[in-house]
Amino acid sequence: xxxxxxxxxxxxxxxxxxxxxxxxxxxxxxxxxxxxxxxxxxxxxxxxxxxxxxxxxxxxxxxxxxxxxxxxxxxxxxxxxxxxxxxxxxxxxxxxxxxxxxxxxxxxxxxxxxxxxxxxxxxxxxxxxxxxxxxxxxxxxxxxxxxxxxxxxxxxxxxxxxxxxxxxxxxxxxxxxxxxxxxxxxxxxxxxxxxxxxxxxxxxxxxxxxxxxxxxxxxxxxxxxxxxxxxxxxxxxxxxxxxxxxxxxxxxxxxxxxxxxxxxxxxxxxxxxxxxxxxxxxxxxxxxxxxx
Length: 292
Fold this sequence. Notes:
85% of the residues lie in helices and 0% in strands. By secondary structure, it is mainly α.
């Protein structure tokens, strides 16, 4: 955790050292993505009848087919959040097709496949556990509650690790100019042994962006629903909150880049130490060979 705090402090210092450049990047490049994310979440209540409800029903049918307990509050909440996540992803996907983001488009799409695979694997494991408990006749309310709590913890850990790997894969894709599955593999190798540091870095960034998204819902969406009109003050408040969200995204990218640099440096150092140690072990054999 100490390394995570050090990276956060260095990232903030780097952000203020290049304040003009980073704020320009936030305004020109990241602002459209932040706007699409915030607006997609604002459109969720209006999309409930045709689209969001259909996604939710599909997910609930899947849960029922897997024989998950319908009375468990965890799966009800998970159903709603997954439906909202799918809707947000579909709404923000067009921003990835802009010319400025084509270099990381393949990695972004493969990250979506990785997230889908992680969710499917977790649901498959929960499916086996709940069905095994049902077959053994142990499906009491207390057991179901304990399994639901354990499933929530397991799902949170899997999603957190998957998110960290996908974010690092985007940085690898941008720095190494590669796309698809290769950045994800590199991210998995780089993050090995540094998972706690990566999670410590992801926590403040995600909490900050979640707070900004909640502020947008409260100050902009709520006021618009109450007044029914978009006046100039509400527009500029929405603009300011969106720009602040873009700044947090830039800061998150800086932290990811610094973490990537540290991971790559450590990997090179470990490789050089291992290579040097291997060479030191072979040196006596070479001498014996020369002597013979």
